[in-house]
């Protein structure tokens, strides 16, 4: 009875070696598949603008929106969510990154009671003007980054790469 | 900042700005309460990630401290004290213990080092991703003033 349940040494070796061999084969084949498919993926990535808001929801006062997209990290796909500050400057839409240019904390609009018309970073009290310019004398040394942006049919589309604005 | 090689260079260049450590406290049990404990751990880890994202320039997120559910409080407090010693010696004047474990509520005054951030566990694992994000965002809005208050207490630097 017991005998039937035991895996013999030979069987064991066969199983494991087949398993390991399979992995190794996959290791060789996968990159080849990847190289073959990659150009297709890249072409797709070119128009990676993401729909985040309707233009008519926006006001002169900056409001927070989520920019969500997937990022290929090579070994897994990461779900990224960034907070973006959107507002109107005249007729124009402006999209500022919420990442403090000092050490990367998240800035908020109007949360410093003494400076209600500025972006405020709670970490080291960094401040930015409405247009994103850093307030001299506070730790950040460059303005908030700006997202590339397009308005299509009344919707705001953002690129996923916020750019420095100097 | 995270406990990751990619973040450590930045950390070393700007150490004096990073005066806060975040440590999740996670109870573990494989018995009856296992499922509950797993969900709790997941929730706290999500919140820790979100806190790191918002406060990364001043906060170092350390690996969670996990303990078997039946471990004695005395030993745990001793362990926490050892942590506090190590962290304070390295300029972390604000230590934030993040947990949903009800046990800690009773020992709030004995917890060393700074702030016990106790959050009720919300079963967000059943929510769809959008609602989950919203729940976490709402939770973060409540956390922010608590952190600001902790930071306003000048603990020397
Ligand atoms: S990270 Fe914003 S002021 Fe330092």
TrEMBL record, chain A:
Keywords: 2Fe-2S, Disulfide bond, Electron transport, Iron, Iron-sulfur, Membrane, Metal-binding, Oxidoreductase, Transmembrane, Transmembrane helix, Transport. GO terms for molecular function: 2 iron, 2 sulfur cluster binding; metal ion binding; monooxygenase activity; oxidoreductase activity, acting on paired donors, with incorporation or reduction of molecular oxygen. It comes from the Bacteria. The chain crosses the membrane at residues 12-33. Signal peptide: none annotated. CDD domains: Rieske. Residues 82-158 form the Rieske domain. InterPro entries: Rieske_2Fe-2S, Rieske_2Fe-2S_sf, Rieske_Fe-S_prot, TAT_signal. The main subunits of the menaquinol:cytochrome c complex are a Rieske-type iron-sulfur protein (QcrA), a cytochrome b (QcrB) and a cytochrome c (QcrC). Component of the menaquinol:cytochrome c reductase complex. The Rieske protein is a high potential 2Fe-2S protein. Belongs to the Rieske iron-sulfur protein family. This is Menaquinol:cytochrome c reductase iron-sulfur subunit. The lineage of its organism: Bacteria, Bacillati, Bacillota, Bacilli, Bacillales.
Automatic annotation (TrEMBL), chain B:
InterPro entries: DUF2487. It comes from the Bacteria. It holds the Pfam family DUF2487. This is DUF2487 family protein. It comes from Geomicrobium halophilum.
């Amino acid at each position: 009875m017991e005998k039937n349940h035991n895996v013999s040494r030979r069987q064991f070796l066969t199983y494991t070696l087949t398993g390991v061999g399979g992995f190794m084969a996959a290791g060789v084949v996968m990159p080849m598949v990847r190289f073959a498919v990659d150009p297709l993926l890249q072409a797709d990535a070119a128009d990676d603008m993401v729909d985040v808001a309707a233009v008519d929801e926006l006001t002169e006062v900056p409001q927070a929106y989520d920019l969500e997209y997937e990022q290929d990290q090579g070994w897994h796909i990461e779900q990224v969510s960034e907070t973006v500050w959107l507002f109107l400057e005249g007729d124009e839409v402006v999209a500022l990154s919420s990442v403090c240019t000092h050490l990367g904390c998240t800035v908020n609009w109007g949360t410093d009671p003494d400076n209600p018309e500025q972006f405020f970073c709670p970490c080291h009290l960094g401040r930015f003007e409405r247009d994103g310019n850093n307030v001299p004398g506070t730790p950040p040394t460059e303005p908030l980054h700006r997202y590339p942006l397009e308005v299509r049919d009344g919707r705001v589309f953002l690129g996923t790469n916020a750019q420095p604005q100097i | 900042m995270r406990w990751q090689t990619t973040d450590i260079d930045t950390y070393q260049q700007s150490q004096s700005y990073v005066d806060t450590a975040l440590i999740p406290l996670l109870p573990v049990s494989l018995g009856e309460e296992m499922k509950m404990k797993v969900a709790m751990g997941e929730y706290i880890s999500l919140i820790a990630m979100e806190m790191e994202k918002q406060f990364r320039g001043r906060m170092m997120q350390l690996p969670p401290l996990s303990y078997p559910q039946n471990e004695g409080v005395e030993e745990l407090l001793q362990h926490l004290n050892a942590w506090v010693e190590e962290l304070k010696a390295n300029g972390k004047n604000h230590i934030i213990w993040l947990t949903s474990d009800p046990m800690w509520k009773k020992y709030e005054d004995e917890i060393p080092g700074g702030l016990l951030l106790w959050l009720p566990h919300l079963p967000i694992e059943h929510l769809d991703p959008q609602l989950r994000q919203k729940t976490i965002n709402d939770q973060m809005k409540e956390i922010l003033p608590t952190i600001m208050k902790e930071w306003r207490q000048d603990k020397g630097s």
